[in-house]
Design goal:
Elements lengths: L8 H25 L2 H8 L5 H17 L1 H14 L2 H21 L3 H4 L2 H31 L5 H28 L4 H18 L7 H17 L4 H15 L5 H31 L4 H25 L5 H23 L5 H14 L7 H5 L7 H31 L3 H25 L20 H9 L1 H9 L1
Helix pairs in contact: 1-5, 1-7, 1-8, 1-9, 3-7, 3-17, 4-5, 4-7, 4-17, 5-7, 5-9, 7-8, 7-17, 8-13, 10-11, 10-20, 12-15, 12-17, 12-18, 13-15, 14-15, 14-18, 17-18, 19-20
């Protein structure tokens, strides 16, 4: 990829370490997710199909319930002590939870306690994954510049998909070759420890550490000598640390991240449930999901590659517009006696044109203040995943009962429209586009060289801000 030539040796090393860590984190996180059809039978009581669907939904949602708390916790650490500390801590939490999973007795051995322990481990994994992927993507955002920034950050998301595919590969070994599923978690724990150690080589991001260093040097230079200048510098520090984000920017990011959560559940869990009702074995379902995950990996890889040449917002907008009629087609196909091949078609197309923020994350991150970026981004991301996990997993169970397959439209169409609105908002922030939401679908000018946040800083504190930068 030609964008690599525009990166320094330090940037390339950081990107490699973060990719490896994110791969390991998502391998561990998704190992249970994609073996849920098998492991839920081991850790949860056997029930009727509808109750089983609700239990599966509960196991899925438990991964996301603690994410908002994890966002606040790791966000505080990331904004006060640095990005590096968070990405090391999260991998260690994942390692500990994997060790517990690898040694946990089943429901047949200890009863309902097994279900509770599994749920707690899933919560811990969800908590750690929250600080992981966001921390890694923010790190790359802050050490690179456009247009190389877009694929550099996108490769972090791609690494998470590689981890997902690898987890599915292990799941296939478990169901087809008699591989002990506990060994899969032992492998996950081992590589998580390796990832933590490797990340100690990372350096803190210049954008974060330089902001603090500039302020500290400026204060040291005038300390006890110039009360008036000290007062101005205090005003700068307060301005930088207390910058507020427009509510529309918050809701726009929420709308974009919500789309990915809904699409993930629909493709793997909802469609997987249909396959199970058709009588497919866990082995068949895992194999099909493995093939689908390869389609997802290829799709994300293409988007990341194109992000260096085509503005990422334009790519995501095009995909989302394609997804709207595809939703109608999905509902139609599901309402006419779907077969395994039909479900595979739905899953594959859903992954190729489905909603995802990959490629444009760096654009959205840059519109949040440096000293609050980790907290804002991670908390919004976590809240969107938590809410959408509950809405889609539990909501679809009842909507499909009431409206049949057309109940999908009740969830997916509004989510897609809100996703498009989120892109439209960031499009306006980046390019000052005039016109309505609908007209913006087909308008996109070249990206600005500076973010709105940078312009805000220079506009509101021009002379003092520059003096701090010079110091």
């Amino acid at each position: 990829m030609s964008f690599l030539s525009s990166l320094t040796k330090t940037q390339k090393e950081a990107m490699g370490l973060l990719q490896v860590g994110t791969f390991l984190e998502y391998f561990d996180l998704m190992l249970y997710v994609h073996m849920a059809v098998l492991l839920n039978d081991l850790f949860f009581p056997k029930t009727d199909p509808k109750t089983a669907s609700l239990l599966t939904a509960f196991a899925f949602c438990s991964t996301y319930l603690l994410r908002p708390f994890g966002a606040l916790f790791f966000g505080y650490i990331g904004d006060h002590f640095g990005r590096k500390a968070t990405v090391i801590m999260t991998t260690m939490i994942m390692a500990i939870s994997c060790i517990i999973m690898a040694t946990l007795p089943t429901y047949a051995q200890i009863g309902i306690s097994a279900a509770w322990f599994v749920t707690i481990c899933r919560m811990a994994q969800g908590l750690s994954s929250m600080g992981e992927v966001i921390g890694a993507e923010i790190y790359m955002t802050e050490i690179t510049k456009p247009p190389a920034r877009y694929p550099a950050v996108g490769l972090i998301g791609l690494a998470s998909r590689v981890g997902t595919v690898s987890a599915l590969g292990v799941a296939m070994l478990v169901t087809t070759q008699g591989f002990d599923w506990r060994n899969g978690f032992w492998i996950g724990a081992a590589i998580a420890v390796v990832g933590s150690v490797a990340r100690t080589r990372l350096r803190e991001t210049p954008e974060f550490i330089d902001m603090k260093r500039h302020l500290k040097r400026a204060f040291d230079d005038v300390k006890g000598h110039d009360p008036e200048k000290t007062k101005k510098l205090l005003a700068i520090e307060e301005t930088l640390k207390c910058q507020k984000v427009d509510s529309k920017t918050i809701f726009a990011y929420f709308a974009v991240t919500s789309g990915a959560a809904v699409n993930f559940y629909f493709i793997y869990f909802f469609c997987g449930g249909i396959l199970k009702e058709m009588g497919l074995t866990p082995n068949d379902i895992i194999y099909q999901n493995f093939i689908v995950s390869i389609f997802e990996l290829i799709s994300i890889g293409v988007i990341v590659f194109l992000g260096y040449y085509i503005y990422p917002l334009k790519i995501l907008k095009f995909k989302a517009l394609l997804y709207l009629p595809v939703i109608i087609i999905f509902s139609f196909l599901l309402s006419h006696s779907p077969t395994r091949e039909t479900i595979f078609f739905i899953q594959s197309i859903g992954m190729i044109v489905g909603l995802a923020g990959s490629g444009a994350d760096a654009i959205m991150f840059s519109h949040f203040p440096v000293f609050k970026r980790f907290r804002y981004v991670s908390f919004i991301y976590a809240i969107s995943r938590s809410i959408m996990a509950v809405v889609t997993s539990f909501g679809l169970v009842y909507l499909i009962d009431f409206l049949g397959p057309w109940g999908l439209c009740i969830v997916l169409v509004p989510i897609t429209l809100s996703f498009l609105w989120g892109l439209y908002h960031y499009e306006k922030l980046e390019h000052k586009i005039e016109g309505s939401f609908l007209r913006s679908f087909f308008r996109l000018r070249a990206p600005s060289s500076r973010t709105v946040l940078e312009k805000f800083q220079e506009k509101n504190v021009p002379e003092i801000y520059k003096k701090v930068q010079e110091n």
